[in-house]
Design goal:
Elements (H helix, E strand, L loop, with lengths): L4 H17 L1 H11 L2 H25 L9 H11 L5 H12 L5 H12 L2 H39 L4 H7 L4 H10 L10 H10 L1 H32 L3 H30 L1 H21 L3 H29 L4 H13 L1 H16 L3 H4 L2 H30 L1
Length: about 400
């Protein structure tokens, strides 16, 4: 399409834009209707986007796609990113199914296994492009997404409370029966109210900061690491994608599952402090080294820290905003994931200023973010201790 760098950057970021901001209203909507309906709507929007992009490729690729088609392609790119927003829907949907003491493991498994997708497709995509071509790869992903949507629509269920409401029970009757069946978390009520309740809680915004660093940072590096390996070390694109997937994305996603267990055992605040300290160490290694193996070690370390921190943050969401976890999930998941849209241009500024060396120096962004996250985690831990001491006095 021969587009300027700015337009290219915006086009690449388009799915992350909708995928982050749509998390806020759709995450809150769960508190009113349960997770299944919002989840399906987001998947359908993403299907429409993928269908549009695939159709454009079938009809016009390669010679017919020009810069004049940019607005249409950008629009379908925005739609395609809607599926990313399902994360903030799935978090409260999962939370409502599990008791408080099992939240960390359940949410760690949900988020960790779900987040393996960028890494897995980072491995698959180079081979798909060779075997199927660009159009065939888009068509294959559209079919895969369609199958996943159908499976979810058939087998997914909302927690007891929402099932009982759909059966005609009053909220009071539904809550009483759901409690008897073992459900512990319940919504506060209306969508706007859930967002307002969670927005008034200052801890919600502290959790946003933490998730901006860990998950927003994760999204940013999933896209940035292939460029880093290719431009800074001269590694070919296919191998650079594999290094990102195996050394960072998949690792961070699987670590997130175990991070949920650690959060249950040691507490979300303590786990977060250690996790962001690990992110800090990984970033410092990436800044100072120009040796491949040390850089790979830095990538692995920062991935371990981010994966564990992601689990710790969502262990804390139902703890600190127990009366509106869906609303809080929307703010935290949406604005936190917005880091995936904000951070890459910051990393790019370092390459503009310092050339090739900027690919290493850009990780100062993560040093600053990690330090802020550590301080915020300490603040939350202090609040937690004060609340516990107050409860004991009373």
């Amino acid at each position: 399409m021969h587009m300027p760098g700015l337009l290219l950057g915006l086009l690449i970021a388009a799915p992350n834009l909708t995928g982050s901001l749509l998390r806020i209203p759709f995450g809150a909507w769960v508190d009113k209707v349960g997770g299944k309906k919002p989840f399906i709507i987001l998947l359908i929007l993403s299907l429409l986007g993928m269908a549009g992009l695939t159709t454009i490729l079938v009809l016009y690729y390669p010679q017919g796609i020009t810069l004049k088609m940019y607005p249409v392609i950008f629009f379908f790119g925005l739609l395609s990113g809607s599926g990313i927003a399902t994360f903030s829907v799935g978090v409260p949907q999962t939370s409502y199914w599990f008791p408080q003491k099992k939240q960390g493991m359940a949410l760690g498994a949900y988020g960790g296994l779900g987040n393996t997708a960028p890494g897995l497709f980072g491995i698959i995509l180079p081979f798909a492009l060779v075997g199927l071509g660009l159009t065939g790869s888009y068509a294959a992903w559209f079919i895969f997404l369609l199958i996943g949507t159908v499976i979810y629509a058939i087998f997914a269920h909302d927690a007891y409370y929402f099932q009982l409401l759909k059966q005609g029970k009053t909220p009071e009757e539904a809550k009483k029966t759901a409690q008897e069946l073992g459900q512990e978390l319940f919504p506060s009520g209306q969508v706007k109210e859930a967002l307002k309740i969670s927005a008034r809680n200052p801890r919600t915004w502290l959790l946003v900061i933490l998730y901006f660093t860990s998950f927003g940072g994760f999204l940013a590096l999933t896209g940035w690491f292939p460029t880093y390996w290719n431009q800074y070390f001269g590694i070919n694109v296919t191998e650079a994608g594999l290094l990102m997937a195996l050394g960072f994305s998949i690792l961070a996603s699987f670590i997130r599952v175990y991070g949920g267990h650690l959060s249950d055992k040691f507490g979300g605040e303590s786990t977060a402090i250690v996790s962001y300290l690990i992110v800090l160490i990984g970033a410092l290694i990436l800044i100072v080294t120009s040796q491949f193996w040390f850089a790979l070690l830095g990538e692995i370390i920062i991935g371990i820290g981010m994966g564990t921190a992601n689990a710790a943050v969502f262990k804390l969401v139902p703890k600190y905003v127990s009366n509106a976890p869906g609303g809080a999930s929307g703010w935290v998941g949406g604005l936190g994931a917005f880091g995936g849209f904000v951070v890459p241009p910051l990393l790019g500024i370092f390459t503009d200023l310092y050339g090739k060396k900027g690919y290493a120096l850009g990780f100062w962004v993560y040093v600053v973010l990690a330090v802020i996250a550590i301080l915020v985690s300490f603040l939350l831990k202090t609040w937690s201790k004060e609340n516990l001491a107050g409860t004991r006095r009373h």
